[in-house]
Design goal:
Blueprint (H helix, E strand, L loop, with lengths): L5 E9 L3 E9 L4 E9 L1 E3 L1 E5 L6 E5 L13 E4 L7 E8 L4 E4 L4 E5 L2 E5 L5 E4 L5 H12 L10 H4 L2 E3 L1 H4 L5 H13 L6 E4 L4 E3 L2 E4 L7 H11 L2 E6 L2 E2 L4 H9 L13 E3 L2 E5 L5 H18 L3 E4 L19 H11 L6 E2 L3 E2 L8 E2 L15 H10 L5 E2 L8 H6 L6 H12 L5 E2 L3 H4 L2 H16 L1 H14 L4 E2 L1 H4 L12 E3 L3 E3 L9 E13 L4 E11 L7 E5 L2
Parallel strand pairs: 8-23, 13-14, 13-26, 14-17, 17-21, 21-22, 24-25
Antiparallel strand pairs: 1-2, 2-3, 4-12, 5-11, 6-8, 7-10, 8-9, 9-12, 10-11, 15-16, 18-20, 19-20, 27-28, 28-29, 29-32, 30-31, 30-32
Amino acid sequence: MFADYACFNTTVVNSPNKRIFKVTIFNDKMVTDLIFEVPNIMGKEFTIRLLENEYWWGGIVDDGIFMPYGYIEHSRDMTNFNGNQCSPLLISNKGRYVWSQERFTYTFKGRELQIKSDFGDVEFGSGYRNLREVYRFVSKKYFPPSGTIPDKLLFTAPQYNLWIELLYEPTQQKVLEYAQAVIENDMPPGVLMIDDNWQQYYGSWEFHPGRFPNPEEMVEKLNEMGFKVMLWVCPMISPDTATFRMLRDKGYLIKDKNGEIAIRKWWNGYSSLIDCTNPNAVQWFQSQMDNLIDRYGIDGFKLDAGDPEFYEDSDICAVPTTKNGHCEAWAKVGLKYALNEYRACWKMAGFPLVQRLKDKNHSWEGNGLASLIPNGLAQGLMGYAFNCPDMIGGGEYLNFLANAAQLDQELFVRYAQCAALFPMMQFSAAPWRVLDKQHLSYCVEAAKLHVNMGDTIVKLAEHAAKTGEPIMRHMAYVFPDGGYEKIADQFMLGDNILVAPVLKKGAVTRKVVFPEGTWLGDDGSEITGPRTVEVEVPLSRLPWYRKVKY
Protein backbone atom coordinates (compact mmCIF):
# COMPACT_ATOMS: atom_id res chain seq x y z
CA MET A 1 0.00 0.00 0.00
CA PHE A 2 2.80 2.42 0.94
CA ALA A 3 5.37 1.22 -1.61
CA ASP A 4 5.45 4.58 -3.34
CA TYR A 5 5.80 6.63 -0.15
CA ALA A 6 8.88 7.78 1.77
CA CYS A 7 9.01 8.28 5.52
CA PHE A 8 9.38 11.97 6.44
CA ASN A 9 9.48 11.92 10.22
CA THR A 10 8.80 9.64 13.16
CA THR A 11 7.98 10.83 16.68
CA VAL A 12 7.38 8.80 19.80
CA VAL A 13 5.35 9.79 22.84
CA ASN A 14 5.66 7.61 25.96
CA SER A 15 2.85 7.13 28.45
CA PRO A 16 2.59 4.77 31.42
CA ASN A 17 0.71 2.11 29.47
CA LYS A 18 1.54 2.60 25.80
CA ARG A 19 3.88 4.12 23.26
CA ILE A 20 2.31 6.33 20.61
CA PHE A 21 4.02 6.65 17.22
CA LYS A 22 3.34 9.37 14.67
CA VAL A 23 4.85 8.62 11.27
CA THR A 24 4.66 11.19 8.50
CA ILE A 25 4.81 9.66 5.02
CA PHE A 26 4.80 11.47 1.70
CA ASN A 27 5.14 11.21 -2.06
CA ASP A 28 4.97 13.80 -4.82
CA LYS A 29 1.19 14.17 -4.40
CA MET A 30 0.42 14.16 -0.68
CA VAL A 31 1.63 14.12 2.93
CA THR A 32 -0.11 11.87 5.45
CA ASP A 33 0.24 11.40 9.22
CA LEU A 34 -0.24 7.87 10.54
CA ILE A 35 -0.74 7.43 14.28
CA PHE A 36 -0.56 4.00 15.92
CA GLU A 37 -0.09 2.62 19.42
CA VAL A 38 2.14 -0.10 20.81
CA PRO A 39 0.69 -1.11 24.20
CA ASN A 40 2.78 -2.05 27.20
CA ILE A 41 1.78 -4.91 29.47
CA MET A 42 1.99 -4.55 33.26
CA GLY A 43 1.21 -7.48 35.52
CA LYS A 44 2.47 -10.27 37.75
CA GLU A 45 1.84 -13.07 35.28
CA PHE A 46 1.56 -13.08 31.49
CA THR A 47 2.77 -14.87 28.36
CA ILE A 48 4.48 -13.32 25.34
CA ARG A 49 4.38 -15.01 21.95
CA LEU A 50 7.85 -14.91 20.38
CA LEU A 51 8.27 -13.34 16.96
CA GLU A 52 9.93 -15.08 14.05
CA ASN A 53 13.72 -15.22 14.55
CA GLU A 54 13.42 -13.43 17.89
CA TYR A 55 16.18 -13.98 20.45
CA TRP A 56 16.55 -12.73 24.02
CA TRP A 57 19.28 -11.91 26.54
CA GLY A 58 19.27 -10.97 30.23
CA GLY A 59 18.35 -12.15 33.69
CA ILE A 60 21.29 -14.14 35.07
CA VAL A 61 24.84 -13.49 33.86
CA ASP A 62 25.90 -17.07 34.54
CA ASP A 63 23.23 -18.18 32.05
CA GLY A 64 25.06 -16.34 29.27
CA ILE A 65 26.17 -19.75 28.01
CA PHE A 66 22.48 -20.45 27.24
CA MET A 67 21.91 -17.12 25.47
CA PRO A 68 20.34 -16.07 23.31
CA TYR A 69 17.14 -17.52 24.71
CA GLY A 70 14.30 -18.39 22.39
CA TYR A 71 15.27 -21.57 20.60
CA ILE A 72 15.82 -23.91 23.54
CA GLU A 73 13.74 -24.38 26.68
CA HIS A 74 15.10 -22.40 29.62
CA SER A 75 13.72 -21.23 32.97
CA ARG A 76 15.12 -19.21 35.85
CA ASP A 77 13.95 -17.82 39.18
CA MET A 78 15.94 -14.62 39.81
CA THR A 79 16.31 -15.52 43.48
CA ASN A 80 19.21 -17.74 42.41
CA PHE A 81 22.04 -15.70 40.90
CA ASN A 82 24.32 -18.74 40.65
CA GLY A 83 27.25 -16.73 41.98
CA ASN A 84 27.24 -13.78 39.59
CA GLN A 85 25.34 -10.65 38.61
CA CYS A 86 21.61 -10.48 37.98
CA SER A 87 19.28 -7.84 36.57
CA PRO A 88 15.45 -7.93 36.31
CA LEU A 89 15.73 -7.34 32.57
CA LEU A 90 15.19 -9.27 29.35
CA ILE A 91 15.71 -7.69 25.91
CA SER A 92 15.33 -9.03 22.39
CA ASN A 93 16.78 -8.43 18.95
CA LYS A 94 13.27 -7.45 17.84
CA GLY A 95 13.30 -4.39 20.08
CA ARG A 96 11.17 -5.80 22.90
CA TYR A 97 11.89 -5.88 26.62
CA VAL A 98 10.74 -7.13 30.01
CA TRP A 99 11.60 -5.19 33.17
CA SER A 100 10.65 -5.13 36.84
CA GLN A 101 11.91 -3.45 39.98
CA GLU A 102 11.68 -6.83 41.74
CA ARG A 103 12.77 -10.34 40.91
CA PHE A 104 10.61 -12.57 38.73
CA THR A 105 10.63 -15.97 37.07
CA TYR A 106 10.94 -16.33 33.32
CA THR A 107 10.48 -19.42 31.18
CA PHE A 108 11.16 -19.88 27.48
CA LYS A 109 9.13 -22.82 26.28
CA GLY A 110 8.15 -23.55 22.72
CA ARG A 111 7.61 -20.19 21.06
CA GLU A 112 6.51 -18.46 24.25
CA LEU A 113 8.05 -16.42 27.05
CA GLN A 114 6.21 -16.91 30.32
CA ILE A 115 6.58 -14.30 33.08
CA LYS A 116 5.57 -14.74 36.71
CA SER A 117 6.23 -12.55 39.75
CA ASP A 118 5.36 -12.95 43.42
CA PHE A 119 6.70 -9.51 44.36
CA GLY A 120 5.70 -6.73 41.99
CA ASP A 121 4.46 -5.86 38.55
CA VAL A 122 6.53 -6.76 35.52
CA GLU A 123 6.48 -4.53 32.44
CA PHE A 124 6.62 -5.71 28.84
CA GLY A 125 7.32 -3.15 26.14
CA SER A 126 8.07 -3.06 22.43
CA GLY A 127 8.38 -0.74 19.47
CA TYR A 128 12.16 -0.58 18.98
CA ARG A 129 13.92 -1.75 15.86
CA ASN A 130 16.77 -3.86 17.21
CA LEU A 131 18.89 -4.94 20.15
CA ARG A 132 20.87 -1.72 20.38
CA GLU A 133 17.80 0.53 20.28
CA VAL A 134 15.93 -1.35 22.98
CA TYR A 135 19.03 -1.59 25.17
CA ARG A 136 19.66 2.14 25.00
CA PHE A 137 16.02 2.80 25.89
CA VAL A 138 15.94 0.53 28.95
CA SER A 139 19.37 1.73 30.08
CA LYS A 140 18.31 5.37 30.00
CA LYS A 141 14.95 4.68 31.67
CA TYR A 142 15.73 2.04 34.31
CA PHE A 143 19.47 2.18 35.08
CA PRO A 144 20.89 5.44 33.72
CA PRO A 145 24.68 5.66 33.66
CA SER A 146 26.33 7.52 36.51
CA GLY A 147 28.80 9.51 34.41
CA THR A 148 31.82 8.10 36.26
CA ILE A 149 34.09 5.08 35.81
CA PRO A 150 36.10 2.94 38.24
CA ASP A 151 39.82 3.65 38.66
CA LYS A 152 41.49 3.85 35.22
CA LEU A 153 44.31 1.49 36.21
CA LEU A 154 41.77 -1.35 36.29
CA PHE A 155 41.38 -0.89 32.51
CA THR A 156 44.91 0.04 31.44
CA ALA A 157 46.97 -2.70 33.11
CA PRO A 158 46.51 -6.32 34.17
CA GLN A 159 45.19 -7.05 37.63
CA TYR A 160 46.90 -9.54 39.95
CA ASN A 161 44.77 -11.34 42.53
CA LEU A 162 46.76 -13.45 45.00
CA TRP A 163 43.95 -15.92 45.72
CA ILE A 164 45.10 -18.99 43.77
CA GLU A 165 48.74 -18.49 44.70
CA LEU A 166 48.33 -17.83 48.44
CA LEU A 167 44.78 -19.01 49.26
CA TYR A 168 44.14 -18.61 53.01
CA GLU A 169 47.80 -18.07 53.89
CA PRO A 170 48.84 -14.64 52.59
CA THR A 171 51.85 -13.04 54.25
CA GLN A 172 53.72 -9.81 53.78
CA GLN A 173 56.76 -11.66 52.44
CA LYS A 174 54.73 -13.74 49.93
CA VAL A 175 52.88 -10.68 48.65
CA LEU A 176 56.13 -8.82 48.00
CA GLU A 177 57.71 -11.87 46.35
CA TYR A 178 54.75 -12.20 43.97
CA ALA A 179 54.92 -8.53 43.03
CA GLN A 180 58.68 -8.70 42.47
CA ALA A 181 58.21 -11.76 40.23
CA VAL A 182 55.74 -9.80 38.09
CA ILE A 183 58.42 -7.20 37.40
CA GLU A 184 61.23 -9.75 36.92
CA ASN A 185 59.18 -11.63 34.33
CA ASP A 186 58.61 -8.45 32.30
CA MET A 187 54.90 -8.28 33.08
CA PRO A 188 53.28 -4.84 33.48
CA PRO A 189 52.49 -3.80 37.08
CA GLY A 190 48.88 -2.94 37.83
CA VAL A 191 46.35 -3.46 40.59
CA LEU A 192 47.38 -6.09 43.15
CA MET A 193 44.66 -7.69 45.27
CA ILE A 194 45.41 -9.31 48.64
CA ASP A 195 42.61 -11.81 49.14
CA ASP A 196 40.99 -13.50 52.15
CA ASN A 197 42.66 -14.02 55.55
CA TRP A 198 44.95 -11.00 55.58
CA GLN A 199 42.82 -9.77 58.50
CA GLN A 200 42.54 -10.90 62.11
CA TYR A 201 38.93 -12.13 61.73
CA TYR A 202 35.80 -11.14 59.83
CA GLY A 203 34.71 -7.76 61.13
CA SER A 204 38.10 -6.79 62.52
CA TRP A 205 39.58 -5.21 59.42
CA GLU A 206 43.12 -4.94 60.71
CA PHE A 207 46.16 -6.73 59.31
CA HIS A 208 47.03 -9.94 61.13
CA PRO A 209 50.22 -8.92 63.02
CA GLY A 210 51.83 -12.33 62.64
CA ARG A 211 51.42 -12.50 58.86
CA PHE A 212 51.83 -8.78 58.13
CA PRO A 213 54.30 -7.29 60.63
CA ASN A 214 54.65 -3.97 58.77
CA PRO A 215 51.80 -3.46 56.28
CA GLU A 216 52.56 0.23 55.80
CA GLU A 217 56.07 -0.61 54.60
CA MET A 218 54.67 -3.37 52.37
CA VAL A 219 52.23 -1.03 50.66
CA GLU A 220 54.94 1.59 50.19
CA LYS A 221 57.19 -0.96 48.45
CA LEU A 222 54.33 -2.14 46.23
CA ASN A 223 53.59 1.44 45.23
CA GLU A 224 57.26 1.96 44.36
CA MET A 225 57.04 -1.08 42.03
CA GLY A 226 54.08 0.51 40.26
CA PHE A 227 51.19 -1.33 41.93
CA LYS A 228 48.01 -0.09 43.55
CA VAL A 229 46.78 -2.29 46.38
CA MET A 230 43.31 -3.68 47.06
CA LEU A 231 42.16 -5.72 50.06
CA TRP A 232 39.42 -8.35 50.22
CA VAL A 233 36.46 -7.60 52.54
CA CYS A 234 33.03 -9.12 53.09
CA PRO A 235 29.82 -8.28 55.04
CA MET A 236 30.34 -11.19 57.45
CA ILE A 237 31.09 -10.73 61.16
CA SER A 238 32.71 -13.55 63.13
CA PRO A 239 30.57 -14.51 66.18
CA ASP A 240 31.98 -14.61 69.70
CA THR A 241 34.26 -11.62 69.10
CA ALA A 242 34.43 -8.15 70.57
CA THR A 243 33.36 -6.69 67.22
CA PHE A 244 30.33 -8.97 67.09
CA ARG A 245 29.22 -7.95 70.59
CA MET A 246 29.67 -4.26 69.85
CA LEU A 247 27.72 -4.42 66.58
CA ARG A 248 25.01 -6.53 68.20
CA ASP A 249 24.52 -3.98 70.95
CA LYS A 250 24.34 -1.13 68.43
CA GLY A 251 21.72 -2.95 66.35
CA TYR A 252 23.96 -3.15 63.28
CA LEU A 253 23.52 -6.88 62.63
CA ILE A 254 20.73 -8.61 60.70
CA LYS A 255 18.21 -10.57 62.77
CA ASP A 256 16.22 -13.60 61.68
CA LYS A 257 12.42 -13.74 61.67
CA ASN A 258 12.45 -14.70 65.37
CA GLY A 259 14.37 -11.58 66.36
CA GLU A 260 17.63 -13.41 67.03
CA ILE A 261 20.95 -12.40 65.48
CA ALA A 262 21.11 -14.35 62.20
CA ILE A 263 24.05 -16.76 61.99
CA ARG A 264 24.44 -18.00 58.42
CA LYS A 265 26.51 -20.70 56.77
CA TRP A 266 28.74 -19.52 53.93
CA TRP A 267 31.84 -20.91 52.25
CA ASN A 268 34.13 -20.03 55.17
CA GLY A 269 31.92 -21.28 58.02
CA TYR A 270 29.23 -19.53 60.07
CA SER A 271 28.96 -15.77 60.54
CA SER A 272 26.55 -12.95 61.32
CA LEU A 273 25.94 -10.25 58.70
CA ILE A 274 26.27 -6.47 58.83
CA ASP A 275 22.96 -4.74 58.08
CA CYS A 276 23.75 -2.69 54.98
CA THR A 277 20.24 -1.19 54.97
CA ASN A 278 21.25 0.65 58.16
CA PRO A 279 23.13 3.89 57.30
CA ASN A 280 24.91 3.85 60.66
CA ALA A 281 26.10 0.28 60.12
CA VAL A 282 27.37 1.20 56.65
CA GLN A 283 29.13 4.24 58.07
CA TRP A 284 30.85 2.02 60.63
CA PHE A 285 31.92 -0.49 57.96
CA GLN A 286 33.25 2.23 55.67
CA SER A 287 35.13 3.77 58.59
CA GLN A 288 37.08 0.49 58.89
CA MET A 289 37.92 0.68 55.19
CA ASP A 290 38.82 4.37 55.41
CA ASN A 291 41.17 3.58 58.27
CA LEU A 292 43.04 1.13 56.03
CA ILE A 293 43.35 3.83 53.39
CA ASP A 294 44.50 6.53 55.81
CA ARG A 295 46.76 4.37 57.97
CA TYR A 296 48.41 2.06 55.43
CA GLY A 297 47.82 3.66 52.04
CA ILE A 298 45.45 0.97 50.76
CA ASP A 299 43.90 2.04 47.44
CA GLY A 300 40.66 0.06 47.23
CA PHE A 301 38.68 -3.07 48.00
CA LYS A 302 37.40 -6.32 46.59
CA LEU A 303 33.94 -6.57 48.18
CA ASP A 304 33.07 -10.27 48.13
CA ALA A 305 30.17 -12.44 49.32
CA GLY A 306 26.86 -10.62 49.73
CA ASP A 307 25.14 -13.33 47.66
CA PRO A 308 21.35 -13.56 48.14
CA GLU A 309 21.68 -17.14 49.35
CA PHE A 310 23.12 -15.88 52.65
CA TYR A 311 19.95 -13.88 53.44
CA GLU A 312 16.23 -14.54 53.87
CA ASP A 313 13.24 -12.47 52.76
CA SER A 314 12.02 -12.63 56.35
CA ASP A 315 15.19 -11.14 57.87
CA ILE A 316 14.68 -8.22 60.25
CA CYS A 317 16.77 -5.17 59.32
CA ALA A 318 16.63 -1.37 59.45
CA VAL A 319 14.81 -1.16 56.12
CA PRO A 320 12.70 -4.22 55.24
CA THR A 321 13.91 -5.80 52.02
CA THR A 322 14.36 -9.08 50.18
CA LYS A 323 17.30 -11.42 49.75
CA ASN A 324 18.09 -9.60 46.52
CA GLY A 325 17.72 -6.25 48.28
CA HIS A 326 20.43 -7.19 50.78
CA CYS A 327 22.75 -7.98 47.87
CA GLU A 328 21.96 -4.58 46.35
CA ALA A 329 22.61 -2.81 49.66
CA TRP A 330 26.03 -4.48 49.96
CA ALA A 331 26.92 -3.33 46.44
CA LYS A 332 26.16 0.28 47.34
CA VAL A 333 28.82 0.14 50.06
CA GLY A 334 31.51 0.00 47.36
CA LEU A 335 30.35 3.09 45.51
CA LYS A 336 32.52 5.22 47.76
CA TYR A 337 35.70 3.66 46.34
CA ALA A 338 36.91 4.07 42.75
CA LEU A 339 39.05 0.96 43.09
CA ASN A 340 36.51 -1.80 43.69
CA GLU A 341 35.38 -5.25 42.57
CA TYR A 342 32.17 -7.28 42.96
CA ARG A 343 31.19 -10.75 41.84
CA ALA A 344 27.56 -11.10 42.99
CA CYS A 345 25.34 -8.11 42.30
CA TRP A 346 21.65 -7.27 41.97
CA LYS A 347 20.25 -4.35 39.98
CA MET A 348 23.36 -2.16 40.10
CA ALA A 349 23.70 -1.65 36.35
CA GLY A 350 24.95 1.79 35.33
CA PHE A 351 27.06 2.33 38.46
CA PRO A 352 30.89 2.56 38.44
CA LEU A 353 31.38 -0.88 39.96
CA VAL A 354 33.71 -3.54 38.59
CA GLN A 355 31.78 -6.77 37.95
CA ARG A 356 33.94 -9.90 37.73
CA LEU A 357 32.69 -13.16 36.31
CA LYS A 358 32.28 -15.93 38.88
CA ASP A 359 35.10 -18.37 39.65
CA LYS A 360 35.85 -20.49 36.58
CA ASN A 361 37.24 -23.99 36.20
CA HIS A 362 40.57 -24.93 34.71
CA SER A 363 38.78 -26.44 31.72
CA TRP A 364 37.98 -25.71 28.09
CA GLU A 365 34.25 -26.41 28.22
CA GLY A 366 31.38 -25.80 30.67
CA ASN A 367 32.21 -23.34 33.44
CA GLY A 368 35.65 -22.80 31.96
CA LEU A 369 37.19 -20.89 29.07
CA ALA A 370 34.14 -21.43 26.83
CA SER A 371 31.92 -19.48 29.24
CA LEU A 372 33.95 -16.24 29.31
CA ILE A 373 32.67 -14.61 26.11
CA PRO A 374 28.94 -15.50 26.32
CA ASN A 375 28.79 -14.55 30.00
CA GLY A 376 30.81 -11.38 29.40
CA LEU A 377 28.43 -10.40 26.61
CA ALA A 378 25.51 -11.01 28.97
CA GLN A 379 27.05 -8.62 31.49
CA GLY A 380 27.19 -5.87 28.89
CA LEU A 381 23.61 -6.40 27.72
CA MET A 382 22.40 -6.17 31.32
CA GLY A 383 24.11 -2.85 31.98
CA TYR A 384 27.25 -4.10 33.74
CA ALA A 385 29.67 -2.38 31.38
CA PHE A 386 32.77 -2.43 33.60
CA ASN A 387 33.25 -6.17 33.43
CA CYS A 388 36.19 -8.43 34.13
CA PRO A 389 36.65 -12.11 33.25
CA ASP A 390 37.63 -14.50 36.02
CA MET A 391 41.25 -15.16 36.95
CA ILE A 392 43.36 -16.44 34.06
CA GLY A 393 43.62 -20.21 34.09
CA GLY A 394 40.54 -20.48 36.31
CA GLY A 395 39.85 -19.05 39.76
CA GLU A 396 37.73 -21.87 41.20
CA TYR A 397 40.44 -22.96 43.62
CA LEU A 398 39.24 -26.49 44.39
CA ASN A 399 39.09 -27.28 40.69
CA PHE A 400 42.45 -25.58 40.10
CA LEU A 401 44.09 -27.54 42.90
CA ALA A 402 42.58 -30.78 41.60
CA ASN A 403 44.32 -30.09 38.28
CA ALA A 404 47.54 -28.71 39.78
CA ALA A 405 49.60 -31.78 38.91
CA GLN A 406 48.56 -31.67 35.27
CA LEU A 407 47.85 -28.06 34.38
CA ASP A 408 47.12 -27.47 30.71
CA GLN A 409 49.62 -24.82 29.59
CA GLU A 410 47.84 -24.32 26.28
CA LEU A 411 44.58 -23.65 28.13
CA PHE A 412 46.33 -21.13 30.39
CA VAL A 413 47.63 -19.21 27.37
CA ARG A 414 44.25 -19.20 25.62
CA TYR A 415 42.65 -17.94 28.87
CA ALA A 416 45.11 -15.02 28.89
CA GLN A 417 44.49 -14.23 25.23
CA CYS A 418 40.72 -14.36 25.64
CA ALA A 419 40.94 -11.92 28.57
CA ALA A 420 43.41 -9.55 26.90
CA LEU A 421 40.79 -7.50 25.05
CA PHE A 422 38.05 -7.70 27.65
CA PRO A 423 37.67 -4.34 29.43
CA MET A 424 39.89 -5.84 32.16
CA MET A 425 42.10 -8.90 32.63
CA GLN A 426 43.14 -10.59 35.88
CA PHE A 427 45.96 -13.00 36.70
CA SER A 428 46.12 -15.08 39.88
CA ALA A 429 48.07 -18.33 39.50
CA ALA A 430 51.61 -17.14 38.78
CA PRO A 431 52.31 -17.72 35.07
CA TRP A 432 56.06 -17.89 35.75
CA ARG A 433 55.46 -20.77 38.19
CA VAL A 434 53.01 -22.91 36.23
CA LEU A 435 54.28 -22.33 32.67
CA ASP A 436 57.46 -23.04 30.76
CA LYS A 437 59.35 -20.16 29.20
CA GLN A 438 57.61 -20.31 25.82
CA HIS A 439 54.04 -20.42 27.21
CA LEU A 440 54.93 -17.68 29.69
CA SER A 441 56.07 -15.45 26.82
CA TYR A 442 52.64 -15.74 25.19
CA CYS A 443 50.95 -14.63 28.43
CA VAL A 444 53.34 -11.69 28.72
CA GLU A 445 52.41 -10.71 25.14
CA ALA A 446 48.70 -10.86 26.02
CA ALA A 447 49.29 -8.64 29.07
CA LYS A 448 51.23 -6.11 27.00
CA LEU A 449 48.52 -6.08 24.33
CA HIS A 450 46.03 -5.11 27.01
CA VAL A 451 48.32 -2.27 28.12
CA ASN A 452 48.74 -1.09 24.54
CA MET A 453 44.96 -0.99 24.13
CA GLY A 454 44.49 0.76 27.47
CA ASP A 455 43.71 4.22 26.09
CA THR A 456 41.12 2.76 23.72
CA ILE A 457 39.49 0.80 26.52
CA VAL A 458 39.39 3.84 28.83
CA LYS A 459 37.70 5.91 26.11
CA LEU A 460 35.09 3.17 25.73
CA ALA A 461 34.65 3.08 29.52
CA GLU A 462 34.09 6.84 29.56
CA HIS A 463 31.60 6.43 26.72
CA ALA A 464 29.82 3.74 28.76
CA ALA A 465 29.68 6.08 31.74
CA LYS A 466 27.92 8.70 29.61
CA THR A 467 25.65 6.54 27.45
CA GLY A 468 25.32 3.22 29.29
CA GLU A 469 26.51 1.30 26.23
CA PRO A 470 28.61 -1.83 26.82
CA ILE A 471 32.35 -1.75 26.28
CA MET A 472 32.36 -5.41 25.21
CA ARG A 473 29.58 -5.76 22.64
CA HIS A 474 27.65 -8.56 20.99
CA MET A 475 27.97 -8.86 17.22
CA ALA A 476 24.17 -8.48 16.95
CA TYR A 477 24.37 -5.25 18.98
CA VAL A 478 26.76 -3.56 16.55
CA PHE A 479 25.47 -5.19 13.35
CA PRO A 480 21.73 -5.73 13.92
CA ASP A 481 20.98 -6.82 10.35
CA GLY A 482 23.76 -9.38 10.05
CA GLY A 483 22.02 -12.41 11.57
CA TYR A 484 24.77 -12.73 14.21
CA GLU A 485 22.55 -13.43 17.24
CA LYS A 486 23.90 -16.94 17.89
CA ILE A 487 27.59 -16.02 17.66
CA ALA A 488 29.09 -16.42 21.14
CA ASP A 489 32.76 -17.16 20.45
CA GLN A 490 33.81 -13.71 19.23
CA PHE A 491 32.92 -10.17 20.28
CA MET A 492 33.30 -6.50 19.53
CA LEU A 493 35.38 -4.12 21.62
CA GLY A 494 33.38 -1.00 20.94
CA ASP A 495 32.07 -0.75 17.38
CA ASN A 496 35.32 -1.11 15.44
CA ILE A 497 37.46 -3.86 16.98
CA LEU A 498 36.57 -7.51 16.32
CA VAL A 499 38.07 -10.09 18.70
CA ALA A 500 38.05 -13.82 17.93
CA PRO A 501 39.89 -15.76 20.68
CA VAL A 502 40.73 -19.44 20.31
CA LEU A 503 38.56 -21.57 22.60
CA LYS A 504 39.27 -25.12 21.37
CA LYS A 505 42.14 -27.29 22.53
CA GLY A 506 44.72 -27.97 19.84
CA ALA A 507 43.15 -25.56 17.36
CA VAL A 508 45.52 -24.19 14.71
CA THR A 509 42.75 -22.59 12.63
CA ARG A 510 39.38 -21.08 13.48
CA LYS A 511 36.50 -19.57 11.53
CA VAL A 512 35.94 -15.85 11.99
CA VAL A 513 32.71 -14.14 10.95
CA PHE A 514 33.46 -10.73 9.46
CA PRO A 515 30.63 -8.18 9.25
CA GLU A 516 30.39 -5.61 6.48
CA GLY A 517 33.40 -3.38 6.04
CA THR A 518 37.14 -3.81 5.67
CA TRP A 519 39.03 -5.35 8.60
CA LEU A 520 42.78 -5.03 9.23
CA GLY A 521 44.13 -7.97 11.26
CA ASP A 522 46.76 -8.22 13.96
CA ASP A 523 48.71 -10.32 11.45
CA GLY A 524 48.58 -7.61 8.77
CA SER A 525 45.86 -9.31 6.74
CA GLU A 526 43.02 -7.28 5.22
CA ILE A 527 39.60 -8.89 4.89
CA THR A 528 36.43 -7.40 3.44
CA GLY A 529 33.08 -8.58 4.80
CA PRO A 530 30.51 -9.76 5.15
CA ARG A 531 31.94 -13.27 4.93
CA THR A 532 33.33 -16.08 7.03
CA VAL A 533 37.05 -16.83 6.79
CA GLU A 534 39.12 -19.63 8.28
CA VAL A 535 42.25 -18.04 9.72
CA GLU A 536 45.46 -19.49 11.12
CA VAL A 537 45.74 -19.35 14.91
CA PRO A 538 49.05 -20.70 16.21
CA LEU A 539 49.33 -20.68 20.00
CA SER A 540 51.19 -17.38 19.78
CA ARG A 541 48.22 -15.61 18.19
CA LEU A 542 45.07 -13.89 19.45
CA PRO A 543 43.16 -12.97 16.26
CA TRP A 544 41.75 -9.45 16.38
CA TYR A 545 40.83 -6.96 13.67
CA ARG A 546 40.25 -3.25 13.45
CA LYS A 547 37.65 -1.84 11.06
CA VAL A 548 39.33 0.33 8.46
CA LYS A 549 37.71 3.56 7.32
CA TYR A 550 38.67 4.50 3.81
